């Protein structure tokens, strides 16, 4: 098992998330790790009422930049407008006029054209879909829709893609 | 039969009823009804106000049978942790069956107050049509309705005095609900629509305000600009309670000057809120009324700089209730401590919800407040850090707390000075504050803090725990010690079956228990449900995949993600969605 900079124990496995039946349980068990709690990525904490969150300082809006490989300019999407990954993916598909961004999130998909990733608060590039939606929304700084073809020939599996990216940064 | 009782029986029922009228508290009236059969009967038929803290503890039919002449009803639905998205959507808490039953039985309903319930437009329409004397609707943290439902209320409730919408999720259809108040409506005393997102017809509002001469409380929404506020204040200088909508304008404009003059005339305003959008340079407009304010809520006011806030607060010497954002800073709280000697309740909310780490408030601000405000009895404090020393000082300064809620932004942060758990600090609070009825703890906490709570918090009715404790002992200390405990809510803490099952009868003395991400297993919950038929033990799954998901986790040894149990007279509820399983 590797420890990344934030102290979280993460295990990079072959295959995309969702490939194992106990994937969901694993995520929740990891967050018993107190280090994760420290990173303020816990659902429902601080205990501020949902109404107040939506109506808070920045009006509750969570605009993040989205880049799509090959597109000449970036777009912005408001994460607070969506209740989950499927809605977000649909919004991205509308924004860029394409289809199939969500395929990477499904089980056993290895040949999907697009890979949606995001940069989190720690500056790490993460594959979309691993953590509960709210946790993602609270830690996402920006989004990128990668084209698998552009990924410098580093192979078809998630961990390699991500490794390739951190080298780029 | 004792002498007293025989004497009392010579009094006609009207006399008893008249005597009972002086009893306003629900507890007193409940006690009275237990004295003897005739008192029970008189009390039953004279009871006008009923409070039901958990809508699933009874049902509408039993309510109506028990109190056939009720006029005023308070109902609460979802568990408190629903506020923090821990309860899936569609869990329940529907008001419709209650309204339907009361309508059928021709209850003369005049007042309805709901909290955390699902209120459909259908319910509102039925409400509006069924109760000719309906006077007051207060909805707090509810959802499920649109402005069409409000239009029905406005159109049909001829004697409506109060429409108070607090922090509800309303689907704003941008219809003209406000215009639905007929010209003949002059009875409004209180109107609060601050939580609505859409536009309202300003002219209709101005006319409404002009003809309701008894209007005392008005809270506008964000969509209404300063110009409208100005016109309204000219029409209604008698207001006690004002919620501004948007409060941003060019401070040099004529409109703003007119607003300043209008405000000066409002000698009766005691409570001020809103500022849903605010230009700090506009705040001086309210200085003239600050001296008499007893309540001020700036917690939805984004981007006021700390110095602008403190300038405002320096004018507010009589404040008793203050809700602000942590942008005020420790220094600003020092100003509050020096100025607001009448302060009783303080709430400091976090401005930065995503933990980027901008300076929030710390233990310093809290200590300053405790030292400067001798009447302080209720606090909700979101802070970056805390220390035991500070809490011990606060406990010494303020033995009169009835509500003490502390939320560290990092839920398990230790004492900032010593790196120790915060057990001793909270221990000091419960030991000193003998009247404490509500407590929320946070920060790094071991079983020790619960030992203190069990030992000292004799009046405690509600306790909220998150990421705390080491073992079942912690929860046991609380269950065994806090005799008056009514609501216990626990998340992400290592309490399990031993604690859950040690005193099952305790739960019948409580309203409810919530446990999520703890160590209780399905098997233990089943045991509890089996032994205690007058409890509903609900296992709540994530609202995905429906019934299939619930069935998939059939193993008794599996931990239960979310459990909510509550006492009830009416068995498992019939409206539970498929992700809720009542054992």
From TrEMBL, chain A:
SUPFAM superfamilies: CAD & PB1 domains. GO terms for cellular component: nucleus. Pfam families: AUX_IAA. Keywords: Auxin signaling pathway, Nucleus, Repressor, Transcription, Transcription regulation. The keyword Chaperone does not apply. The keyword Transcription regulation applies. Its main location: nucleus. It is found in: Nucleus. Belongs to the Aux/IAA family. Aux/IAA proteins are short-lived transcriptional factors that function as repressors of early auxin response genes at low auxin concentrations. Homodimers and heterodimers. PANTHER family: AUXIN-RESPONSIVE PROTEIN IAA17, AUXIN-RESPONSIVE PROTEIN IAA5. This is Auxin-responsive protein. It comes from Salvia splendens. The lineage of its organism: Eukaryota, Viridiplantae, Streptophyta, Embryophyta, Tracheophyta.
From TrEMBL, chain B:
The keyword Nucleus applies. GO terms for molecular function: auxin binding. GO terms for biological process: auxin-activated signaling pathway; pollen maturation; SCF-dependent proteasomal ubiquitin-dependent protein catabolic process. Pfam families: F-box_5, Transp_inhibit. It is found in: Nucleus. Pathway: Protein modification; protein ubiquitination. InterPro entries: COI1_F-box, F-box_dom, Leu-rich_rpt_Cys-con_subtyp, LRR_dom_sf, Transp_inhibit. GO terms for cellular component: nucleus; SCF ubiquitin ligase complex. Residues 11-52 form the F-box domain. The keyword Nucleus applies. Keywords: Auxin signaling pathway, Developmental protein, Nucleus, Ubl conjugation pathway. It comes from the Eukaryota. This is F-box domain-containing protein. It comes from Salvia splendens.
């Amino acid at each position: 098992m590797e420890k990344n900079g934030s102290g979280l124990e993460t295990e990079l496995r072959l295959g995309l998330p969702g490939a194992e039946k106990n994937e969901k349980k694993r995520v929740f068990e990891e967050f018993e790790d107190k280090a994760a709690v420290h990173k303020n990525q816990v659902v429902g904490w601080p205990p501020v009422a949902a109404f107040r969150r939506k109506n808070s300082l920045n009006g509750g809006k969570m605009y993040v930049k989205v880049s799509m490989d090959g597109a000449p300019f970036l777009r912005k999407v408001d994460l607070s407008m969506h209740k989950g990954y499927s809605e977000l993916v649909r919004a991205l598909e509308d924004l860029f006029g394409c289809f199939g961004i969500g395929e990477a999130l499904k089980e056993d998909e290895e040949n999907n054209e697009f890979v949606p990733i995001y940069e989190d608060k720690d500056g790490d590039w993460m594959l979309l879909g691993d953590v509960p939606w709210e946790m993602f929304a609270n830690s996402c700084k920006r989004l990128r829709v990668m084209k698998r073809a552009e990924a410098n020939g580093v192979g078809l599996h998630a961990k390699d893609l991500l490794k390739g990216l951190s080298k780029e940064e | 039969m004792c002498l007293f009782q025989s004497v009392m029986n010579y009094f006609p029922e009207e006399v008893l009823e008249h005597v009972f009228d002086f009893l306003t508290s629900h507890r007193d009236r409940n006690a009275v009804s237990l004295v003897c059969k005739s008192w029970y009967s008189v009390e039953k038929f004279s009871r006008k106000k009923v409070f039901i803290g958990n809508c699933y503890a009874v049902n509408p039919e039993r309510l109506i049978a028990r109190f056939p002449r009720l006029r005023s009803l308070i109902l609460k639905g979802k568990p408190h942790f629903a506020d923090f998205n821990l309860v899936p959507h569609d869990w329940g808490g529907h008001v419709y069956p209650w309204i339907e039953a009361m309508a059928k039985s021709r209850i003369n309903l005049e007042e309805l107050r709901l909290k955390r319930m699902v209120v459909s437009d259908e319910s509102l329409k039925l409400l509006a049509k069924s109760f000719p004397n309906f006077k007051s609707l207060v909805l707090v943290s509810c959802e499920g309705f649109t402005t069409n439902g409000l239009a029905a209320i406005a159109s049909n409730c001829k004697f409506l005095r109060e429409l108070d919408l607090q922090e509800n999720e309303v689907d704003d259809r941008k219809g003209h609900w406000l215009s639905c108040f007929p010209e003949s409506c002059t009875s409004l005393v209180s109107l609060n629509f601050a939580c609505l997102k859409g536009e309202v017809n300003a002219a209709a509002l101005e006319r409404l305000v002009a003809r309701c001469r008894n209007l005392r409380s008005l809270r506008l929404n964000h969509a209404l600009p300063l110009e409208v506020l100005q016109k309204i204040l000219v029409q209604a200088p008698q207001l006690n309670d004002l919620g501004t909508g948007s409060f941003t304008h060019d401070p040099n404009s004529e409109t703003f000057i007119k607003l300043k003059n209008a405000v000066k005339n409002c000698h009766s305003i005691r409570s001020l809120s809103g500022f849903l959008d605010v230009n700090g340079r506009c705040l001086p407009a309210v200085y003239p009324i600050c001296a008499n304010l007893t309540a001020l809520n700036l917690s939805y006011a984004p981007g006021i700089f700390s110095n602008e806030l403190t300038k405002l607060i320096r004018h507010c010497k009589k404040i008793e209730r203050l809700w602000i954002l942590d942008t005020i800073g420790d220094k600003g709280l020092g100003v509050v401590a020096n100025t607001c000697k009448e302060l009783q309740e303080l709430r400091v909310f976090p401005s930065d919800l995503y933990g980027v780490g901008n300076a929030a408030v710390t233990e310093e601000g809290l200590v300053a407040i405790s030292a400067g405000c001798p009447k302080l009895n209720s606090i909700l404090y979101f802070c970056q850090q805390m220390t035991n020393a500070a809490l011990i000082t606060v406990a010494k300064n303020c033995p009169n707390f009835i509500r003490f809620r502390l939320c560290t932004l990092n839920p398990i942060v230790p004492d900032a000075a010593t790196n120790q758990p915060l057990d001793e600090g909270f221990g000091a609070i419960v030991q000193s504050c003998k009247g404490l009825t509500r407590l929320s703890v946070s920060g790094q906490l071991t079983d020790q803090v619960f030992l203190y709570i069990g030992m000292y918090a004799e009046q405690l009715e509600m306790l909220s725990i998150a990421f705390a404790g080491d073992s079942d002992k912690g929860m046991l200390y609380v269950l065994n010690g806090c005799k008056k405990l009514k609501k216990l809510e626990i998340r992400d803490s290592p309490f399990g079956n031993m604690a859950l099952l040690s005193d099952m009868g305790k739960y019948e003395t409580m309203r409810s228990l919530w446990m999520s991400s703890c160590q209780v297993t399905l098997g233990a919950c089943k045991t509890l449900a089996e032994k205690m038929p007058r409890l509903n033990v609900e296992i709540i799954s994530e609202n995905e995949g429906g019934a299939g998901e619930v069935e998939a986790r059939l193993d008794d040894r599996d931990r239960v993600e979310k459990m909510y149990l509550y006492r009830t007279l009416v068995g498992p509820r019939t409206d539970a969605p498929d992700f809720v399983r009542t054992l």
